[in-house]
Amino acid sequence: xxxxxxxxxxxxxxxxxxxxxxxxxxxxxxxxxxxxxxxxxxxxxxxxxxxxxxxxxxxxxxxxxxxxxxxxxxxxxxxxxxxxxxxxxxxxxxxxxxxxxxxxxxxxxxxxxxxxxxxxxxxxxxxxxxxxxxxxxxxxxxxxxxxxxxxxxxxxxxxxxxxxxxxxxxxxxxxxxxxxxxxxxxxxxxxxxxxxxxxxxxxxxxxxxxxxxxxxxxxxxxxxxxxxxxxxxxxxxxxxxxxxxxxxxxxxxxxxxxxxxxxxxxxxxxxxxxxxxxxxxxxxxxxxxxxxxxxxxxxxxxxxxxxxxxxxxxxxxxxxxxxxxxxxxxxxxxxxxxxxxxxxxxxxxxxxxxxxxxxxxxxxxxxxxxxxxxxxxxxxxxxxxxxxxxxxxxxxxxxxxxxxxxxxxxxxxxxxxxxxxxxxxxxxxxxxxxxxx
Length: 437
What we know:
The protein is of the alpha/beta class.
C-alpha cells in the first residue's frame, strides 16, 4: 500500500495552491500564535475610541471649525480602513466638525496613486462620495511642507493637507515590518504621506545596512526613531490601529497617542507573530497572497522578511520559494519601476550592492538593494507568476508550479531536505531559538 502523502496549502492571490513535498523532504508548517479574533470589531473600535491610551478622547480634541486630516493606508495594506475611518468620522461629526473641513489622505508613499475603485474598497462608497479623498504626492514640491531635519539627519517633508490641518489622525495595522520593526502607529503618516527626500533617506543604504534595522525590532532602530520624530513634527495627534491574524481578522484595537497606543499594540503583536523555530532550514516556502502578491516589488517582501528575521530562516545557499501571481509585473509605481530597472540592468547581484553602497539610490530602489542582499546568500524562486520574464529580469527564478520549484531545489540541494512552510510570511516572524542561533 502506498503511504499517504501530506498535502500542504499556501496562499496564492485570493486562492491557494495545494502541493505535496517529494519523498525525502521533511515539512514543518509555521503559523502565528493562535488568538481568538474579536467577536464585535465595531464595538471594540468604539471602546478604543472612548478609552484612548495616553490621550484625551477624540471628541474632546476636535471642535467646530477645525480642519482635520486622516491619513489612511493604501490598497497594499490589509488595514480595515472601511471600519476605522468611518468610526473616526463619526467622532468628528459628533464634535461638530463639518464634512468640508475633513480630508482623507491615502498614504501611498512612493507607490502609484490609488484608483477610484481602490478608494471605495478602502473606505466604502458612502465615505468616498461624502468627503474629499486625495493621494500623497511625494514628488510634487507644491503639495509638500518642509519640516526640517531629524536628530539622525533625515529631511522631513510631508503632505500639506496633513501638516496644515488643525487635527491630524492616522489609521494603521501593526505587523512586522522590514525596516520599521513594526508598521503602523507613526508610519502611515510619516512614510505614507511623506515627500521623496524622507523616503529616500530612511530607505537608503546607511539605514538598510544598519544592524538595528530589523524585523520586529524597535529599540535602537534608526528607521523607527526617524519616522517617529517625523510624525511628531508633522503634528500627528491621534491614531486608530489594529493587529490582525493570518486570516486578516481583527485581534486587537487601540486608539490614542501615536507612541503610547502603538507600543501597546507592538507588545501584543509580538506575542502573536513571533514564533520559535529550532534551526535554519534548507528551503523555506513563504506565502504572500492578495493584495501583496500583485507585483514582484511587494511579493519579494516574503523572502526578505524571512531572511532578515533576527536570524535568517534558511541556511547559506538555501532556497526561498514564493508563490505569487504578479499580474502587475514589477509594479506600476515610481518606486516599483526603479526597483525593476536596478535589478534588470545590473550585470550581477554584487554590482547592485557595490553601486548602492558607493552611490546610494532613489526611493523604491532600496528593494533592489535588499533583494540583492538576499540573493547574495540564497536562491529565490517565484511560483505561478503571470510575468515570468520580469521575475527572471529581477534575477529571481520563475517556476510555473510548486512541483517544478521543488524539483529544481532537489536537483541543486539534494533529495533530503528540511522545508519550512510559512503560509503567511509577512505576518509570521520565525525566531531561531537562542541555543541554535
